[in-house]
Amino acid sequence: MMLPTHAMMGLAIAAPLSALAPDIAPAALAGALAGSVFPDLDLYSGHRRTLHYPTVYALLAVPAVVLAAVSTLPVTVGLAAFLVGATVHCRMDRYGGGLELRPWEATSDRAVYDHVRGRWRRPKRWVRYDGSPGDLALLTMLSLPLLVGLEGPFRVVTAAALVVGVTYVALRRRLASIAPVVFGYAPETLSRYVPERYRQ
Q1: What's the longest Cα–Cα distance across the chain?
Q2: How far is CA 40 from CA 19, 86, 154, 164, in A?
Q3: Which terms in the Gene Ontology molecular function aspect does this entry carry (predicted)?
Q4: Which entry of 37, 53, 163, 193 is 20 to 30 Å from 44 by CA?
Q5: Is pTM, for the whole model, over 0.85?
C-alpha cells in the first residue's frame, strides 16, 4: 500500500485517544504517524526488508503498550504508538501486492521479509497494489473521519496525505513506465542504490 495509506492508518489507530485521553493524544498521534512511515525509509536500500520487521515490532509493541498504560509519559506513549504503527505497516504490506515495479501483474511472491522465519512472506493482494483504486478507497475511508476529528498539524497532515494519495493513484501506472527510463540516467556512483525493479 502507498505511504499515505500507511500514515493515515497510524493516525486512525491513535485518534480515539483524542476523545478518551486528550492529554496524551498528541504523543500517541505523533508516535503512530512516525511509526507508520518509518519502515518505508528503506525504499532504496532493501525495501520491505531492511526496516520491515513484522514479528519483531509486534513483540516489542506488547511490553511498550503495557508500559505506556502504567506510565503515561509522552515518551512511553509515543514509543508504544510508534511500535504499533510500525507493526501495522508491516502487516499491511502483506495484505497488498508484491514487491515489483508493476504489482498489478502479480509476478512477485515477495510482500515483506520476516526476519524471525528467515524468509519472504507472500502477498495476499487484498488491496491489489500500492496506488490501486482499492488503496485509494482505503485511504479515503481512513482520512475523512480524521479530517473531522483531528485538529492542528494532524489535520493538515491528513489533508496533505489525501492530496498526495489521489495524485499518486492518478499517475501510478505511468510512473512504472517512467521510472526505468529516469533511473537509467543515474550516475554510476548512485546506480548501486537504485532498486533492481527500477532497472526492468
Answers
A1: 54
A2: 30, 10, 20, 16
A3: hydrolase activity
A4: 163
A5: yes
Contacts of 8 by beta carbon, 8 Å cutoff, 6+ apart: 139, 142, 143, 146, 158, 161
Q: Between 25-37 and 152-184, two packed helices, what is the crossing angle to 10 degrees? A: 10
- How far is the C-alpha of 41 from the C-alpha of 194, rounded, in Å? 14
Grid cell, residue 32, equals 503512530
User: For the segment 113-158, what is each residue's pLDDT rounded down to a tens digit?
Assistant: 999 999 999 999 999 999 999 999 999 999 999 999 999 999 999 9
Q: Which residues of 22-51 are buried (b: 16+ CB within 10 A; e: fewer)?
A: eebbbbbbbbbbbbbbbbbeeeeeebbbeb
Nearest alpha-carbon partner for 132 in 166, 99, 82: 166
d(CA 149, CA 71): 26
End-to-end CA distance of the chain: 21
H-assigned helices in 96-196: 133-149, 152-184, 188-191
Please report, to the nearest 10 degrees, the dihedral formed by the alpha carbons of residues 136, 95, 16, 84 taken in order.
-130
